[in-house]
């Protein structure tokens, strides 16, 4: 099983404790081993195949935000602790900048999460924002300004619960969004939005 960077750093302490805590109770050993295994499962990083058109979901989880912001549309995906937390590029393009924004750590599914700690990965046509949650204190971008990414390429991960938002290109509006709030999506596979022009180009 492929793992996101840093997986063993979080899981190894639990495995190392499994032996010593066994002196207290066999159940404690099982709990330590279970925690270590669950941590590695959390950091799983499966391969994905991407469709040839549209704006891809940057994260596994449920759609929690669909709203207009001026002449742009934002689509957000809430990642539960059981979801894959490796994030992927919704569209191809060159990274203009990667910016860290300090903030709070409210539950990522709440309206207050708009004020949470964030990492903005900006592209010429769209922006991707990785948002920390109540238990997510580590946002790990893999990319830097100047790098060119392909659609569906891995670009970062967030440790333990969070949200990923895509501010769609200006050419997209609400009618181009093909998902609904509460719908489950998969990073690099689910198409969040596709304009008629994109769908026509794909069919040709």
Automatic annotation (TrEMBL):
GO terms for biological process: phospholipid biosynthetic process. It comes from the Archaea. The keyword rRNA processing does not apply. InterPro entries: PS_Dcarbxylase, PSD-A. GO terms for molecular function: phosphatidylserine decarboxylase activity. The chain crosses the membrane at residues 12-43. The keyword Lyase applies. Keywords: Cell membrane, Decarboxylase, Lipid biosynthesis, Lipid metabolism, Lyase, Membrane, Phospholipid biosynthesis, Phospholipid metabolism, Pyruvate, Transmembrane, Transmembrane helix, Zymogen. Pfam families: PS_Dcarbxylase. PANTHER family: ARCHAETIDYLSERINE DECARBOXYLASE PROENZYME-RELATED. NCBIfam families: anchor_synt_D (NF038088), PRK05305.2-3 (NF003683). This is Phosphatidylserine decarboxylase.
């Amino acid at each position: 099983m492929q793992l996101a960077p840093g997986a063993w750093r979080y899981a190894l302490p639990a495995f190392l404790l499994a032996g010593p805590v066994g002196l207290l109770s066999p159940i404690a050993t099982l709990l330590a081993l279970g925690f270590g295994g669950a941590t590695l499962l959390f950091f799983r990083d499966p391969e994905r195949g991407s469709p040839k058109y549209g704006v891809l979901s940057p994260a596994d989880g449920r759609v929690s935000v669909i709203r207009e912001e001026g002449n742009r549309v934002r689509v957000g995906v809430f990642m539960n602790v059981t979801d894959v937390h490796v994030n992927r590029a919704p569209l191809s393009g060159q990274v203009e900048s990667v910016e860290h924004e300090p903030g709070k750590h409210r539950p990522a599914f709440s309206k207050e999460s708009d004020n949470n700690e964030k990492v903005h990965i900006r592209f010429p046509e769209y922006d991707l924002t990785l948002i920390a949650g109540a238990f997510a204190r580590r946002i790990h971008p893999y990319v830097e300004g100047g790098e060119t990414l392909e659609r569906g390429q891995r670009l970062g991960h967030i440790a333990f619960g969070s949200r990923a938002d895509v501010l769609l290109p200006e050419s997209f509006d609400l009618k181009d969004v093909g998902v609904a709030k509460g719908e489950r999506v998969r990073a690099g596979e689910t198409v969040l939005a596709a304009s008629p022009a994109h769908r026509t180009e794909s069919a040709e």
